[in-house]
Amino acid sequence: MVQACLAEERLLIAPLRRFVWSAWGPIAERAARAYVAGREPDGEPPRRVADAYLAALRGLAAGSLNCYLSIKAPSLGFSHELLGELVETARPSGVGLHFDSLAPEGADRTWALIREAAGRGASAGCTLPARWRRSLSDADHAVALGIRVRVVKGQWADPEAPDRDVRSNFLAVVESLAGRAGRVGIATHDPELARAALARLCAAGTPCELELLYGLPARTPVAIARAGGVPVRFYVPYGHAWLPYGLSQARQHPRVLWWAMRDLLAGSRGTGQP
Predict the structure, then answer these.
(1) Sheet with 68-71, side-by-side order of all strands
(2) How far is CA 236 from the centre of its chain?
(3) Structural contact between residues 165 and 132, judged by C-beta atoms closer than 8 angstroms
(4) Are strands 68-71 and 184-187 parallel, antiparallel or unpaired?
(5) How far apart are alpha carbons 127 and 139 in whole angstroms?
(6) pLDDT tens for residues 39-90?
(7) In sequence order, which residues have a C-beta less than 8 Å from that of residue 221 and are 6 or more positions away?
(8) What SS3 state is found at 189?
(9) Is there a contact between 52 and 233 (Cβ–Cβ < 8 Å)?
């Protein structure tokens, strides 16, 4: 009887699950409007992506804001020519150019652009994913270049070490930067991980900050940063179709679905605090 009930339950749940996820797209697209800064450049030709980046750089420079622009090297076609335009536009105002990390296979070509940007006098930065084994050696490169670093858990697994423990490796990357890097951004909404990482950097006297995705719950991590005297920076996604990065992972992280639906129903346009 128990087995029959379980089988019947599975038959009922499967179509319900399909219905929920088929309805999720329109809900997410509407909810995303509260969290985005502009239209999505990804998927456009590199020239158009570069033009969008250039417009953003000019806007940031005009606003005299303490911020930097995150760019995706693959979206630029890894073009050194287009990068040169960005560097020449960003350098006079001091607006930073930060290189996001994407799939592992593009890492070497991205680092070639990072080195070029730094060598041409740009205020450059890089992102180090804890999932990648190479991030420890890349941390050494970042220190040698004197560039800003953002540490993330990372979305893409290392193809040569897919089962790496993300939390312990996150802290290992932080340890490799502590006392050596010029500035480190800790990009996580995980309160305990944020507390541990910031404490290690502060103990080493390394300038650091907490970076949070605009639109995701922020109250607890912000309180942790404030308690440690650490500034908080919000990462504002540029796009219109989805909530920042997390929504594409909603199947793996159901809480994101709850945050989005809660904010949609509440009409929230804030930081999505619980």
Answers:
(1) 68-71, 96-99, 124-129, 148-152, 184-187, 208-213, 232-235
(2) 9
(3) no
(4) unpaired
(5) 9
(6) 555 568 999 999 999 999 999 999 888 899 999 999 999 999 999 999 999 9
(7) 188, 189, 190, 191, 194, 210, 212, 232
(8) coil
(9) no
